[in-house]
Amino acid sequence: MNLITGIDGIDRCWWGAEPDIYRDYHDLEWGYPVTEDRRLFEKICLEGFQAGLSWLTILRKRPNFRAAFGNFEIDQVAAFGERDVERLLGDEGIVRHQGKIRSTINNAQRALDLVDEKGSLAAYFWEWADPADPSPKDIAPTTPASTSLSKDLKKRGWTFVGPTTVYAFMEAMGLVNDHLDGCHARPRCAEERQRLLASGL
To answer: Could you tell me which residues come within 8 angstroms of residue 26 by beta carbon, excluding any fewer than 6 positions away?
Structure first.
């Protein structure tokens, strides 16, 4: 795991320098704390679609996914039926995997259950956040926290939420800060995380 200096002279995590769409994602989204339920739901669904593929593939298709899934408004997706499944299976702009499509609809329904129980998805997911902010030395594909969160989601009926998928979600949404030391984004992510954690949501 190394830093890479981009053509703009800015140091970034090794994976975040190019292409442009990846650089923007690294600089402006990845690792910054998210508390908006719609964005949390979108991300965990897209991580499910990413299974077996590259995140770059999903990132490039993200506008199409948003159009196909009602901008990932949870109550709207939860109401999808068989006609929507058929529509989505015919949509060449997304990943046409029936299991993942049905999983997204199921997970929207389970997300509504969580909102009823916890008040918001943010309240639930941020219970699993790491309050510490250690600099990553070796990023494993899973952690004890992601394994526990995965098990809890599965117990609640969620699907396509294995420990690796969940850890990628946690990294992206700022529940952990896996920007490397020296990456220009790390201090800002750390500051925003600590401010959010101190506020108690």
So the answer is: 12, 13, 15, 16, 17, 185
What pTM was computed for the model?
0.95
Spatial contact of 23 and 16, defined as CB atoms under 8 Å apart: yes
Which one of 25, 29, 128, 192 is the catalytic residue?
25
Is 25 known to be catalytic? yes
Catalytic pick from 15, 55, 73, 192? 55
Residue 111: name the closest of 136, 69, 84, 74 by CA: 74
Question: Backbone phi, then psi, for 11, in 5-degree steps?
Answer: -85, 130
Q: Tens digits of per-residue pLDDT, 92-101?
A: 999 999 999 9
Spatial contact of 59 and 25, defined as CB atoms under 8 Å apart: yes
Please indicate whether residue 191 is annotated as part of the active site.
no
